[in-house]
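Response to reviewer comment R2.3. The reviewers asked that we include at least one raw input/output pair. We reproduce the pair for Oxidoreductase here without editing.
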Amino acid sequence: MRLKGYKMKVCFVGLGSIGLRHLRNLISLGKEREIQFEIHAVRSSKAERVELVDKEFYSMQESDLDYDIAFITNPTSLHFETIQEMVKRSKHLFIEKPLFSNCNRSLSELSLRENGIYYVASPLRNSNTYRVLKEILAQERVFSARAICSSYLPDWRQNSDYRTSYSAKKELGGGVRIDLIHEWDYLTDLFGFPLEVMSFQGTFSNLEIDSEDLSVYIAKYSDKLIEVHLDYFGRKTKRELELFTADDTVQVDFVNQKIFYLNRGKTIDTNNASDPYINELNHFLNLLQGNGKNKNDMGHAYKVLKMVKGIL
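Raw output as returned:
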């Protein structure tokens, strides 16, 4: 599919903070790549009109039937029904993570198009830190790994009450197991799927939420063990991976974009000013042109979801 000079018809289902980010990035990349867009949006309420949107609808059934791309950026609990409807209306889908909130339905029920490109967001895997990490792993044998993603939910979304967010509500697909699925997404990309997983989760902090605010995993591979800690209540934001090898302990700091070799005292600064969200949108547009391999298709995303739900 040739994109340069083409006017793409795009629909966003959901225009919250992440939907608006993808919309602005898409417009920005369109200017760089000489692609024009006609932007439609399906919104849940008659909120303030977004200047970049050409046409708004208040149900998917009112939207058009001939989109090039649909962005699925509404609450996770609505993703299955949204994809089921929009796959009839759009050639390709960009789906915000996580794929679904549960594993009660099968991908086969979605009637996906044979030639459709279905990408599930994985910005962490499109960061420069992750690129350098993969280069390191090509040269190191890892005996054990430990990942942590810890942050304070009330600080996530400025000028909004965390108690009303989907993250706080179990019925909307909130909870660290699903909300912080990035960790298992990148770990399975790096190491494959484990043979066995033990996990414990629950709501333990004083946050006013009914979703899980802590989940801890131990995963067994044939040649290593991996530990994962996910929480909503850490007051100091941390997103790190520790790799234990024969000669060193390698600490990967995704927040500060640095990699430390703790034994030899070496530090690699991986900050190259690139935006992972821009990078992954570029990757998606490249896929539409027939370039590259889908980094996170629905099959992989669904398998990760099943794993964090205890189905191996």
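Residues 17-33 form the longest helix (17 residues). The mean pLDDT is 95. Further pairs are available on request from the corresponding author.
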